[in-house]
Amino acid sequence: MGPPVRIASGRPSTSKTDENVDKEQKILAANRKLTIRELADDLNIAYGSVQDLIVNDLGLRRVAAKLVPKDLNFMQKKDRVDIAQDMLSKVKTDPAFIKRIITGDETWVYEYDTQSRHQASEWRLRDEPRPKKPRRFQSKKKV
Question: What total of structural domains would you count in the chain?
């Protein structure tokens, strides 16, 4: 005979049911930006139980949005590629051309960002890419 089986004392978990997992999955599919606290309030389940369901059962993790300077449309991307190819062809015909190129950059520092890093984060699967957050919204005051 082996060692005696120890039964855990305490209340059995009533929050880790297939029904709650399905509800949580449907809610997160509709809005990936919800917080654990909001989900706990919606499902009437403890905060720690919701966190356990999200991380262990659904395999999701909270991922912050990747800040990108601009969200370019197809035509803007195509124009940039065309300009770069044109400059490369000019360098091939005239090697001194590259010495005549003047580059510049402009940096605007705004007083505040309208959305915090946490507000822009989402629940994602491990193999899903991070969401992108283009810097479109700007404050009225510049520093």
Answer: 1
Q: Which domain holds residue 44?
A: 18-66+117-134
Of the candidates 127, 134, 108, 11, the one whose C-alpha atom is nearest the C-alpha of residue 63 is 127
Asked if 131 contacts 65 with a C-beta cutoff of 8 angstroms, the reply is: yes
DSSP secondary structure letter of residue 26: H
pLDDT in tens, 33-71: 888 899 888 888 888 888 888 888 888 888 877 766 666
Give the residue among 70, 73, 24, 28 at the shortest CA–CA distance from 50: 24
Q: Is residue 51, in this structure, part of any structural domain at all?
A: yes
Q: How confident is the model at residue 100 (pLDDT cuts 50, 70, 90)?
A: confident
